[in-house]
Amino acid sequence: MSIHPTPLSMENKYPAIAGKEKGPGPGRYGLPPTIGFIGHDFTKPTGPAYSFYGRISNNMLSVDSSPGPQYHVDAKMTRFGKDGTPAYSMLSRTKGQIEELFSTPGPGAYSPEKAPPCNLQRRPPSYTMGSRTRYRSADSVPAPNKYTLPPLLGPRIPNKRASASYTMPGTFSTGGPSVDLAKTPGPCRYNSTDPSVYLRRQPAFSMLGRHNLPKEKSKNPGPGTYNPEDVTAHRTRAPAYSMGVRHSEFVTPLVVGFSD
After folding, report:
1. For residues 113 and 126, is the Cβ–Cβ distance under 8 A?
2. Rounded distance, CA 174 to CA 180, Å?
3. What is the 3-state secondary structure (H, E, C) of the chain?
4. pLDDT in the model for residue 11
5. What are phi and psi of 195, to 5 degrees?
6. From CA 110, how far away is CA 112, in angstroms rounded?
7. pLDDT level of residue 105 (50, 70, 90 thresholds)
């Protein structure tokens, strides 16, 4: 004789698994609309609403004969009254104004130099340019090219300051600069003194030759031989991760500790 467990006893023995419960989807829930005015979602702002009317028939034109938007409202009229800002206009000149403009004297009509001095001011000097006088044939007046002025070159000028004068003599074949009779040494024969002898010595540097590169016989480890990430003697250990096996979606997670 065998006893089979009933479904009711199985539900009481084992807890219900939430993954097996098949509830309604997101489409089963109805949210209030965000379009229109009636039934609008109160958590969302409502925009202005407009409506469109049908076209009026042609019969209404004979019934309603009121004028359209043809009223002329002055641009200076505002909802607070007439605009009080000043307004200007540019008109053409009249004939009388043109005659008055052309009848005024110009700057050349005035003679301020003929006015008497005011406030004891001194009158500036005035000059006139007369005509050239005629020479008589009896007058023995010399022409401008008859006068002779002293030369300005050289030191022998009585009323002018003379500059320095130099002469260029000829070359001499004997006893000249080309013939060194004294046999004196030239500037290149003297040795110059090192500035480090009488001045502060500057730092000196030298350039050595290049060393030989290591060959294959050397047993030096390369950069890839070292593992600096494994060193935890003087630094904190970096976090490590591993890839585990996939568990069932119905397994309850392990709770180690929890706060009250």
Report:
1. yes
2. 10
3. CCCCCCHHHHHHHCCCCHHHCCCCCHHHCCCCCCCCCCCCCCCCCCCCCCCCCCCCCCHHHHHCCCCCCCCCCCCCEECCEECCCCCCCCCCCCHHHHHHHHCCCCHHHCCHHHCCCCCCCCCCCCCCCCCCCCCCCCCCCCCHHHCCCCCCCCCCCCCCCCCCCCCCCCCCCCCCCCCCCCCCCCHHHCCCCCHHHHCCCCCCCCCCCCCCCCCCCCCCCCHHHCCHHHCCCCCCCCCCCCCCCCCCCCCCCCCCCCCC
4. 56
5. -60, -20
6. 6
7. confident
pTM for the structure as a whole: 0.16
| Pair 66, 72: CB distance under 8 Å | no
Question: Token digits for 212?
Answer: 């030989």
What is the C-alpha separation between 142 and 169, in angstroms, rounded?
43
**pLDDT digit string, tens, across residues 142-187:** 888 888 877 777 777 778 887 887 888 777 666 666 676 667 777 8
pLDDT of 4 above 60: no
Q: For 54-90, write each residue's pLDDT tens digit.
A: 777 666 665 656 666 667 778 888 888 888 888 788 8
207: Cα separation from own chain's centroid = 47
Q: Is 244 exposed, middle or buried (0-12, 13-18, 19+ CB in 10 A)?
A: exposed
At 180 the pLDDT is: 67
Say which amino acid occupies 237.
Answer: R
Q: How many residues does the chain have?
A: 260
- Which positions ≥6 away from 117 have C-beta within 8 Å? 123
Query: Position of tokens 């997101």?
Result: 26
Residue 35's pLDDT band (boundaries 50, 70, 90)?
confident
